[in-house]
Each structure stands twice: as structure tokens, then as C-alpha cells.
Amino acid sequence: MSRRRILPLVVGMVLCCFYAASYNALLQQRASTRHERQSSSGIWNLPPAALLAVAGEFKGLMADYLTLEAGAQLGTELRRKPAGGFQVVKKNYDWPSIHRIFTASQTLDPSFAQTFIMAQGWLPWEPVNMVAETQEILKVAAKNRPWDWQPTHIRGFNTYYFLKQQGEAGKLFLEAAQTPHAPSFLTILGARMAQKGGETETAIAIMKSMLADKDSEEPGYTDIVDRLHALEGVLVIEQAAKKYEKSLGRKPSSLTELTASGILAALPPNPYHIEYCMDSAGIIYFDKPDCRVPTH
Question: Is residue 188 part of a domain?
Fold first, then answer.
């Protein structure tokens, strides 16, 4: 092959290599600056009214896009090593921006399930700790998905796990249990937590309203009735313990002391066929006969 033919080929190869190197450098530069650009710009930063106006008739499609955008920001990043190959790079997430993406997606399509599911998977946990923001997203989802028990159920979990509020968590579980086709375990779990949080009367009232709409032949109906009767027994004991404290100026040290005082003639029947128990904090149990024994 003559030099005249070889020279253009060599020049072309050099230019291709230069283009490839330049393009790779451009990709790396874009990757390194993407976080800064996204934190300061994006359609998700628009006010709700403007966002809805921009989306027009494509609200659902744009909500899908925003959820995908959140997933893209939360995903891992691969960078090419100088010596060859790739490495996984840990990102520094802009959590306020990601939260705005979720809220923008929900503004466009309030009934879109993937938005609250993905938000729950990231926002309330360490190191983000956006529990209040997640609860608000779940509240909007529950309002716009009245057929779905999961948003309120997840709110109950967050209230119990992150906020340490048993009584409020119990009420949310009971609220979720009233959703059509909700699993029966929510009723039992909600009643238990509501009672432990000092919400025995609330738990009883909610369970009675739920039973009014249920068929006695439905699976789990008997379990709910037993739980209701057990809670009614707990309420009788709690009210007697309050009378004891008001009369004697201190809480009873045991249920035996309470019945011996005459304020409560006898303990009410327990549908679970075990004795009621009161722990050292004065909490009444209907399903834990050894409640005074410390657990480790």
C-alpha cells in the first residue's frame, strides 16, 4: 500500500481515537456535574399550578417520567477506571430535590402507586429521615386511592417504627382495616397497638363499627369478636384502676389488690381463657399471663 493511501487512514484513525476520548471525557464531566444541575433545575421545581398547566393532557405520562427520573437519580453510577474497566461510584443524593420529584409526580397523578411505594423505600430511612414528608405523600395517596389499604397501613408502620407512637399507629391500622378487601390481621394488630397506647375506647368503637359491616360468616369474623370482647374486659379493668387511684392516691400494684379493694368485684371473663395481667406500668394485657416477668 502506498504512503499516499496510508496517510489518510492513519489520520482518520487518530481523529476517531481523539473523538472517542473527547466523548468519554464529556460523559464523565456530565456525570460529575449532573447532581449540581439537577438540584437547581428541573420541571419538578415548578409550582403545582404551573406543573399541571405544562403537563396538560399528559399528566399521567409526565408522572411516570418523574418517577423514572427519581429512580435514575437514586440508582448507582458506573465510571470507567483509568486503568480500564468500571467501578461503582457512591452518589451524594440531593434528597430535597428527590422529595420534590415525588411530590411533583403525585401532583400530576395522585393515584399513581409507584410514587408512594418508591418514596417509602427511601425517604423515611437513615440517613434521610424524611418521615413527616413521607407521611404526607402516603396521606395524599390514601385519599386518592380509597380502594387501597396499603398507604394507610404504611403510615401506621412509620408511626410505630419511626415515631414510636403505638396508640396512633393502632388507629391507623384500624383505619386501613376498614378499606375493602383489607387483610383481617390489620384489625387485630390495630386493636392491640391502640390499646397499648391508651386508646382502648377508640379501638373498641372502631372495631364495633367494622363488625356492623361484616358478615358473621366471613373469615376472621370470630377473631375480631373475641378481640373486641377482650378489649371490653380491659376497659372495665382500666376504669376500675382509675377509680382505685382516685380513691387511694396511688395505682394498684396488682389485679389481686384491685379486686380485693372491692372497687372491682371480679375480673371480667376473657375469651382467650387466660387471666388478665397488669404490668408494673399499669398496662393491662389479655393475652400475656406473665406480663410482670421482664423480657430480654
Answer: no
